[in-house]
Design goal:
The complex is a heterodimer of chains A (about 90) and B (about 260). Chain A has 3 helices and no strands. Chain A has helices spanning about 5-55, 60, 85-90. Chain A is rod-shaped, with a radius of gyration of 28 Å. In chain A, about 0% of the residues are buried. With about 260 residues, chain B is α+β, with helices and mostly antiparallel strands. In chain B, strands 5, 6, 7, 8, 9 and 10 form a 6-stranded antiparallel β-sheet that branches. In chain B, strands 2-1-3-4 form a 4-stranded mixed β-sheet. The longest helix of chain B is centred in the N-terminal third of the chain and has 47 residues, at about 15-65. In chain B, about 20% of the residues are buried. At the A-B interface, helix 1 of A face helix 1 and helix 2 of B.
Chain lengths: ~90, ~260
């Protein structure tokens, strides 16, 4: 029993295609995963800006003298919800 | 082994190649995600500490009355130190990594006092996690050595109080135990972590002589020592965050979970 050279080449070709298909699927998965991670990173950066804006909006209140001065802390800002749509579709 | 069989094994045994690649790339991607998460946490904590330092400085300067009865106001140099537990990619699941974030702000608030012709006190305030130390600058610099005399004229030589870099020493103990019990009915797993973390924060200071004619001149050290020192222990608050306070020194945070797989 044995393989002819032509038969072996045919087998190699067939398996090679299978690997290519598998890699194609995996590559898509990796790209989606990476894009989702980057969306979470963008969301986090955006929160820093929005939190600063909210903080700055209270500066007059915080800097006005009064007999019953109230400490303007912690901030009243509520972070935007991180949803599946935001992470996976960038909406 | 037949040469042909070896060739066949090499060329045909491609099963799971893509899965193995996914495992390798997936690990790298998860590592990138972990690094990004730790950066997010650091940036957030830093922003919070800087914001809080300024707001607390405003509040202290606005509400400080001191000994005199001529209204509130002070020149405040506020330093806020916070120890946070952040992601530790190389450590245990709940071990975390103690990171110190520092923010500082200066506020001079003296309208009520200046209207009445008096001067506002200079304060040095250190808030380390939940404990605060307030120090009056003039308590350390006696009257004949202050920068200006009673008439407001600058003296040729004077003393200044300088704070040095903060010293932080931590004593951390962490261990994790996994217990698995099997009987005829179920498998019971119990995972427990114990964290003990005491931090000593000290703010050293020195008093040196200065000359009004030469800004770069620094004379001999008159006095030096520790301005503020506090020992704090870790605890787990109701919001699910690790925090530190003086009243929790020596405290041990025990966390864990038990799950049962019945047959």
């Amino acid at each position: 029993m044995g393989y002819s050279v032509l038969g072996l080449i045919k087998l190699r070709r067939g398996k090679r295609a299978q690997t290519t298909v598998e890699i194609a699927f995996v590559f898509v998965g990796i790209v989606v995963l990476f894009a989702a991670i980057m969306q979470i990173w963008f969301w986090s950066n955006k929160q820093i800006v929005l939190r600063q804006e909210s903080y700055n909006a209270k500066r007059v209140e915080a800097g006005t003298s009064s007999d019953n001065y109230i400490l303007q802390w912690p901030p009243t800002y509520t972070p935007e919800e991180l949803t599946e749509n935001k992470v996976l579709r960038g909406e | 082994m037949n040469r042909l069989v070896v060739i066949k094994m090499i060329y045909l045994n491609k099963k799971g190649q893509a899965v193995a690649e996914m495992a390798i790339f997936g690990t790298l991607i998860l590592l990138v995600f972990g690094v990004l998460l730790s950066f997010m946490q650091q940036f957030n904590d830093r922003q919070y500490v800087q914001m809080e330092a300024f707001r607390r400085a405003l509040e202290k300067a606005n509400s400080y009355t001191g000994d005199a009865e001529d209204g509130a106001g002070a020149s405040v140099q506020y330093t806020l130190v916070q120890n946070r537990h952040q992601i530790n990619l190389a450590g245990g699941y709940r071990q975390g990594n103690n990171v110190t974030q520092t923010g500082s702000a200066n506020v001079y608030w003296a309208i009520p006092k200046s209207e009445k012709g008096s001067s506002a006190d200079s304060l040095l305030v250190f808030k380390v996690n939940e404990d605060e130390g307030v120090f009056k600058y003039n308590d350390y610099i006696p009257e004949p050595h202050r920068r200006t005399d009673e008439d407001g004229n600058e003296r040729p030589t004077y003393w200044v109080l300088q704070t040095e870099n903060m010293n932080t020493e931590s004593d951390t103990l962490f261990n994790e135990t996994n217990v698995k019990n099997e009987d005829t009915y179920a498998i019971t797993n119990q995972k427990t972590s114990r964290l003990k973390d005491d931090i000593v924060t000290a703010v050293p200071y020195k008093i040196v002589e200065k000359k009004s004619s030469d800004n770069d001149y620094e004379g001999p050290t008159i006095e030096e020592g520790i301005l503020y020192e506090v020992k704090q222990g870790v605890y787990f608050d109701s919001d699910g965050q690790y925090k530190y306070s003086q009243s929790n020194t020596g405290n041990e945070v025990v966390r864990g979970k038990t799950w049962v797989t019945p047959f």
